[in-house]
Amino acid sequence: MIIILGPTASGKTRLAAQLAHRVDGEIISADSRQVYRGMTIGTGKDLQEYVVNGTTIPYHLIDIQDAGEKYHVHQFRQDVFQLLPEIRKRGKVPLLCGGTGLYIQALLQGHQFTEIPINEPLREELEALSHDELLVIFHEVPSAYSGLADTSTRKRTIRAIEIATYLCANPDYAFPEIAVPDFQVFGLNPPVEIRRQRISRRLHERLQNGLVDEVQGLLNRGILPEILIYYGLEYKFVTQYLFGELPYDTMVQRLETEIHRFAKRQMTYFRKMERDGIVIHWLDSHATTEQWVEAIVSHI
User: Where is the binding site for ATP, in residues?
Assistant: First the structure.
């Protein structure tokens, strides 16, 4: 399995599609929001990139859930492990492409903690607490997960508490064994200034191409505003604008700032993956997509 990762606006999708065309592969999306139907512009599905020289590259885990439904890392692992033998049976090469580091790491390092069930009552109780309060609770519940947990955001800290609480209540819990396939990971990391330029340009293109209408359409379909806000970034800030909480210019400014911060957090997580033992082959940031394809083919 070939994995391509990188922060938002780094060129992952184009590279994955070009590489899949070269090696006769199929792409599995590792993006936590592209699974949702109707969330196309805001999540940057860029489906036109999957057409290479007149051939549509097969892709998976895009548009598989209705907006408003829940999709978690555990479901992602299950879906990928179901897809892999199907792709191999067709004689194709599986290419995993995305920027959700948590999903990728959970898949590659076999994080069995993702199998632990969700505790909705506990989540509702924790939702009222600040991030600092959540961190205090997390450190008060030591478990086998303590050294692995990602507590960089409120949402992830809540999940960490959920896992730790479950392990304390079920000390004899047996984790299922799942074989992880052989893999090579390649990363894109454009210089910060270039990344910032791409993010800003792409945001304005999305706004011109109907991002606000897309969010309004989701609201018209009955998707609750708090759910769209939960999805974050484009869906959060555009929803706040549509409900009169933010003027348009302020919405654009804050959204642009948050996307830049998001890209920085993605890179921080990828560095964490490296510290955790995942080897990432970083591609030359000054090369072209075609040169990246050649570099990967040469490497594998």
Answer: 6-13
Closest alpha carbon to 264 in 14, 4, 9: 9
Q: Please indicate, yes or no, whether residues 51 and 127 belong to a single structural domain of this protein.
A: no
- In degrees, to the nearest 5, what angle opens at C-alpha 181 toward C-alphas 84 and 6? 85
Which residues participate in the annotated binding site? 6-13
Q: 14 and 158 share a domain?
A: no
pLDDT of residue 254: 97
The DSSP secondary structure of 96-134, one letter per residue, reads EEES-HHHHHHHHTT-GGGGSPP-HHHHHHHTTS-HHHH
**289: left (phi > 0), else alpha (psi -120 to 50), else beta?**
alpha
Closest listed residue to residue 16, CA positions, set 93, 88, 72, 78: 93
pTM beyond 0.90: no
Q: Is the pLDDT of residue 293 over 90?
A: yes
Give the mean pLDDT of 242-258.
97
Answer yes or no: do 151 and 258 share one domain: no
SS3 of residue 203 by DSSP = helix
Range of the domain at 129: 112-177
Decide: helix, strand or coil at residue 25: strand
For the annotated binding site for substrate, the residues are: 8-13
